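Researcher: Next sequence.
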Amino acid sequence: MSASPWLKDKIADLVRAQLAAASVPGGAIALAIDGQVEAIGVGLRDLDRREPLRPEARFYLYSVTKLLLATAALRLVELGNASLDQPVDELLPDLAVKVPATLRQVLNHTAGLPDYGAMPGYFHDLKTDPAAPWTDEAFLTRTLRAGLLYPPGQGWAYSNVGSLLVRQMIERVTGDTLRDALNNLIFAPLGLRRTAVAESISDARDLTPGYSRDLDTDRQWHDISRRYHPGWVAHGVVISTAPELATILDALFAGQLLHPASMNAMLEAVAVPGTQPPFRCPGYGLGVMTDSCSPFGRLAGHAGGGPGFATAAFHAPDVTGHRITAVALLNRDHPTLATEIVYSLFSQWTRTHSA
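Model: Next structure:
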């Protein structure tokens, strides 16, 4: 089943209004309905040239990459190359900073690892030279030198540096770069041609312009896509399109990438403290955000954000009798809008098909 032209027009109008209200130039939107992917572009790709945004535009996925890292890690567990309850220190014996937590705890952010996202030094160095990211060693030593936030398993705190450790584990076990590992484990088996790990600024040559005012002192909106080095995302960052990302999530949650036991482990979520709108019951599994109380049943996926881009991709196994994945990739940074658009896509589908 696919989205009818009428429904696609409704979605375009809905998203256009949300983008306008938040002053976001454009968004690439995709729906996978029972495995069939439909995509539309809404708004502008380039503010200077006033070009329309195409459905197949490429974006940094930012933290949606964590879901792909977790999928690759679980595939390696299935192959017997690692165990979810194996200490990180065993998986990465050469770490200069010891991490007394398991792979499972790192994946679901219960390892007690701090994060670099709020560190003044991180933002200072990023703004000083967006093209010169920290090394892995710098990310680890600067973030972990104060020790753990709590004993592993005794709390929850989102940590990008934990996902860096997952990336290092994948690279060590496979003997490949993250780019090759994710391609071999996920992207190539699905026949994807426009999805890859970004390793340098040159990899962003066909990236959609992404607008931010966080890298410049004048506080104006500037395209950062050819200035920002992807290495500032410590765990690695994937570039993809809305339809290809929808294909990945649909395949993952339809059981095409992981065995049932691995999927059950991935979806076993711990409660996330505090409120996280639009989530009603926010949880976090192994590299996956969940909402067990959404109006559309259990949602699972991930959101992401960073300079120039906001992203979200979530899957519902049964909405009015259909499995649905919704993706929103936006070309301006915004803390919640991509996720809000995804929820509105599910709402629009439900209203249309419940009558």
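Model: The chain has one domain: 5-354. The radius of gyration is 19 Å.
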